Amino acid sequence: MPSMTLLAGRVALITGAGGGIGRGIALRFAQEGAAVALHCRTGTEAAHALAEEIADGTGARAVVLAGADLTVEDECHKVVAQAAEWGGGRLDALVNNAGVQPVQDLPGMPAADWREVVDTNLTSVFACTQAGAEVMRERGGSITHIASVEAARPAPGHAHYAASKAAVVMHARAAAQEYGAYGIRVNTVSPGLIDREGLAEAWPEGVRRWREAVAVGRLGRPEDVGDACVFLASPLASWITGHDLVVDGGVSARPTW
Ligand SMILES: NC(=O)c1ccc[n+]([C@@H]2O[C@H](COP(=O)([O-])OP(=O)(O)OC[C@H]3O[C@@H](n4cnc5c(N)ncnc54)[C@H](OP(=O)(O)O)[C@@H]3O)[C@@H](O)[C@H]2O)c1
C-alpha cells in the first residue's frame, strides 16, 4: 500500500471494528494517518489485537471502545462521546459499519427477528449519526454508512437485511441534506461479497456464483471497502455527499437481461 496521509490529524470512529470489514476500514484509516477509535461489542480480543497492529505497523493512535450494544440508543451516544473525548473533543469521521446479516425466509419470520436486524443495521445508524453530527457541528466532518449491494438487489433469505440496507442508503441522502449546512457530509459505501476466512467452505455455491459474475476476477477484500471509506472521509471527497459508492468488482454493472 502506498504511503499517504490523506487523513493526517483526523480522529475517526469505526463501529464494529472487531469484525472483518471493520478491521479493513480501521487499518486503512490508520495507514492514512488518522487516530482511530475502534468500537466493538463482544469482539474485544480482535479489537485489541487490531489496535496493537495499528500502533506497531502505522504509528497511528488507536483505542478500543468495548461493550456498546448499538441497538440501544444511549449506548450509541455514549460510544460517540467516548471517541470524541479520546480525540480531544473532535471527531472528524464516523464509519457506521456494525451490522448483522442473518439468513431467514420471510414466511414465518417473527417480527422480533425483523426488528433485531432493523435495530442493528438501521436504527443504530440513525442514533450514531445524530450523536456524531452533534460533535461535528463546529468544524464539519464525514459520516459513512456501510450499506450493501443488496440495498438495490436482495438475495434470498435477506428481506430484512436488504430492507435495512436500502433504508440506510436513503438515510444518508436525507442526512446529507440536513447536515450539509454544518459541513457534515453523509455517504454510503455498498460492498459486494467480501472475502473472509472460511467463506469458501461455508458458502461454496455463493462464492462460485460471485466469481463467475465479478468483472474484476476476485472477491472483495476488507481493504477495498476501507479504501472507499478513506476516500469519502478525505478532502478528495469534499463536494461529495448523499452518494452511494458501490464497491463490488463490477457485479452490479452487469446487464440484467
Ligand atoms: N461481508 C460482506 O460480504 C458484506 C457485504 C456487504 C455489506 N456488509 C456489511 O458490512 C458491515 C460489516 O460486516 P462484516 O462482514 O465485517 O461482519 P462481521 O465480521 O460480523 O462484523 C460485524 C460487526 O458488527 C458488530 N455488531 C453486530 N451487532 C451489533 C450490536 N448490536 N451492537 C454493536 N455492534 C454490533 C459486531 O460486533 P462484535 O463482534 O464486537 O459483537 C461485529 O464486529 C455490516 O454492516 C454488513 O452488513 C458486509
Automatic annotation (TrEMBL):
Residues 10-197 form the Ketoreductase domain. Pfam families: adh_short_C2. Keywords: Oxidoreductase. GO terms for molecular function: oxidoreductase activity, acting on the CH-OH group of donors, NAD or NADP as acceptor. GO terms for biological process: fatty acid elongation. InterPro entries: KR_dom, NAD(P)-bd_dom_sf, SDR_fam. SUPFAM superfamilies: NAD(P)-binding Rossmann-fold domains. Belongs to the short-chain dehydrogenases/reductases (SDR) family. PANTHER family: 3-OXOACYL-[ACYL-CARRIER-PROTEIN] REDUCTASE, CHLOROPLASTIC, SHORT-CHAIN DEHYDROGENASES/REDUCTASES FAMILY MEMBER. This is SDR family oxidoreductase. It comes from Streptomyces asoensis.
